[in-house]
Amino acid sequence: MSTRPLRVLALACSTRPGGLGPLVGQWLIGAVTPRAAELGVELVTVSLGDLNLPFLDEEEQPSSGVYRHEHTGRWSAIVDAADGFIAVTPEYNYGMPAALKNALDYLSREWAWKPIGFVSYGNTSAGTRSVQHAKQVVTTLRLVPLGATVAIRIGDALENGRLRSDSARDAAGVGLLDELVRIAHALRPMRERLRAGTLTGPLPGSYARRLTPDDAQEVTVLQRCCWVDEAVVNDTTAIPALHESLDEVREWLAAWQTTGIWLDGRLLGMVRARRLETDWHVGRLAVVPDLRNRGLGRWLLHTAEAAAGPECRRIVLFTGSKSRQNIGLYQSEGYRPVPLADPDGIVCLAKDTSGRQR
Ligand SMILES: Cc1cc2nc3c(=O)[nH]c(=O)nc-3n(C[C@H](O)[C@H](O)[C@H](O)COP(=O)(O)O)c2cc1C
User: What angle do CA 71, 61, 50 make, to 5 degrees?
Assistant: First the structure.
């Protein structure tokens, strides 16, 4: 899965001029910034008041993702780019502030499968009723509320207009960030499934998407595991997929069009393809050992073939000369042997693309 750093938004939910929101927000950022750096988390503060969102004024339902207004598009992009949220929220009349409810209502898919933690503040209940109110709303949006929470009773925490320093509160803030980050990582596969450009995969719950250099770790592990079988049947370890470094894998992932099948954060299989003159070269077809003979390899092969452009006349593959299973699969898909000048333990198979439906 992607190794991109997580981006966590601290949502300042108070819009009241002169309110306590900025004070509480500043405390939070001060308390958790060192831990965010340790965890490689990008922490960004967004003040709901600065978004200038009117009361929901989109004609289409948020689930449609059709936005007419610039303010909605802007808000959508901000939330979409985030991996998790910490709402810094007061309690107004036993509930969350209207600005938070409105900001939540504007969007749908953008919130899904991201954790949300709460730093609440208020009088008698330290804002906890605001959090209870928000929790039942956010779950509808597939936001995942944390158990860890920070609740600040204003009367106890304020001293001369400032938040009294409190190491227990600081530790609770760090604990909240820790939990948020773990859940954000755990939910990454759920979020990825919703990303544009993903296809439904061949197994229930699986999906396929283009692999990028960010996926080099998983690809390297998959290669090492899958090509051991090839080494055994061909009686050689001189197979690039067994030796490539992480950087070499990153390099070819940038150059080839590679498709991976994922299930719950696990890379189940992959195939890469690219054009060389009028040939469409397909390779590195791999499926994890425990899920072979379930149609994943054939599905990947078809996906790679379908990506060949109209200028490609042949689809070309290489495999070990003793890799009977691979050769059988390719022959059953219409590939025929092509003589090689220097075979060196390798066979080449190709099929014409002229009969393909486009
Ligand atoms: C409209 C309004 C309603 C409030 N309702 C509650 C409440 O139900 N429970 C509570 O503990 N405090 C309540 N308070 C007190 C707030 O928690 C406190 O004023 C807090 O500082 C508000 O956050 P802010 O200063 O960032 O606006 C309310 C304050 C306002 C302005």
Answer: 20
- pLDDT, residue 341, reads 85
Ligand 1 atom with least separation from CA of 126: 11
- The whole-chain average pLDDT of the chain stands at 95
**Which residues, in sequence order, are CB contacts of 126 under 8 Å at separation 6+?**
120, 151, 152, 153, 154
pTM assigned to the model:
0.83
pLDDT tens digits, residue range 153-176? 999 999 999 999 999 999 999 999
CA–CA gap between residue 290 and residue 222 (Å, rounded): 12
- Any ligand 1 atom below 6 A from CB of 165: no
For ligand 1, atom 3, name the residue with the nearest CA: 92
Residues in the chain: 358
Helices 167-186 and 21-39: crossing angle, nearest 10°? 60
Choose the residue to mutate in 27, 93, 128, 163 for probing ligand 1, maximizing ligand atoms within 8 Å of C-beta. Answer: 93
Q: How confident is the model at residue 3 (pLDDT cuts 50, 70, 90)?
A: low
DSSP 8-class letter at 347: E
Helix (H) or strand (E) holding 337: strand 336-338
Q: How far apart are CA 135 and CA 85, in angstroms?
A: 13
4 C-beta closer than 6 A to ligand 1: no
* Burial of 66 per CB tally in 10 Å (0-12, 13-18, 19+): exposed
Closest Cα to atom 7, ligand 1: which residue?
A: 93
* 131: alpha, beta or left? (left if phi > 0; alpha if psi -120 to 50): alpha
Report whether 117 contacts 86 (CB < 8 A): yes
Q: Is the distance from the beta carbon of residue 92 to the nearest atom of ligand 1 less than 6 Å?
A: yes
Nearest atom in ligand 1 to the alpha carbon of residue 19 is 25
The residue contributing the CA closest to ligand 1 atom 28 is 92
Q: Which residues share a beta bridge with 118?
A: 87, 149
14 lines ligand 1 (CB under 6 A): yes
Tokens of residue 152, six digits: 């600040």
